[in-house]
Amino acid sequence: MIPVLDWRRFDTDRPGFVADLGAACRGPGFFLLSHHTVPKDLRIRVFEMANAFFSLPDSEKAKISILNTPHYRGWGKEGDESLDETSSLVDRKETFNIGYDLPTDDPRVIAGEPFRGVNQWPDLPGFRETLLAYYDAALALGKVLHRAFAHDLGLPEDHFAHAFDEPLAALRMLHYPPGTGAKNEIGAGAHTDYGAITLLMTDGEPGLQVKPRGGDWIDVPHVDDAYVVNIGDCLMRWTNDIYVSTPHRVLPPIRRRRSVAMFVEANPDQIIRALPGTGAPKYTPIRAADYLMSRLDATYAPKEVT
Known about the structure:
Elements lengths: L3 E3 L2 H4 L1 H13 L3 E5 L5 H15 L3 H4 L12 E3 L17 E5 L8 H4 L16 H26 L17 E7 L11 E4 L5 E6 L5 E3 L7 E2 L7 E5 L1 H6 L9 E3 L6 E8 L6 E2 L13 E2 H12 L7
Parallel strand pairs: 1-2
Antiparallel strand pairs: 2-10, 3-4, 4-5, 5-12, 6-11, 7-10, 7-12, 8-9, 8-11, 13-14
Helix pairs in contact: 2-6, 3-6
């Protein structure tokens, strides 16, 4: 149901790879990507940093709470998020986010532009350097994947090239503690992602499930060193619903679960409108930043816990 695509085929068998990619994006909206460009040693280091960070006392992590800033950067404690907008359940996970890295004297930071704040960093040796290196490598992979999307959609290969120069892209580390067995407990509630695509690397612990349109929940398989890639709502709008953004969730794991997600988002001022050749537009054009803000506001809105 969820195919495994070998990125090397984009060079050795481009028509075949693009056809398989297009089928995945139109069908389940998920695929696994093997033999990609993000170095293994960098992926190992970022998981080591996740272990170090999430092992810190909550009192230390709270100094860089995501609630300290309007730019959605920093530590999110268990209960800060509720991804399922139709449920009163809050997610049983903790997170750490960074965004496009800017200095404190950048005019956009000084002006307080949305999503243009500075990152918050813990006092951990090598943490900042590792996460920024991973951010750059994962973003580069996300950009080059859009070359393949352009081929599939009948567009020039460089159609998306300037849409991700200074993006809204966010890197997120996640920790799911073992489930307690409580009724209706959830690691991450059912949701679709907000951006263009998500590149997810996991530690292999099960829990991630996908619900294809018209189907039931299925487990996402684990393939060593492969990314789980899924289409987000923004790219679905951009393709005028040709590509599919599929609901997914994370069940409470038996053992603790770590994952690292790169949410590949377009530049803030990129206008998301139906791509050429995709038919009559189904959505009103919207700035990428405005769309993202509308989704995040719903995610962090307080809910009555039942």
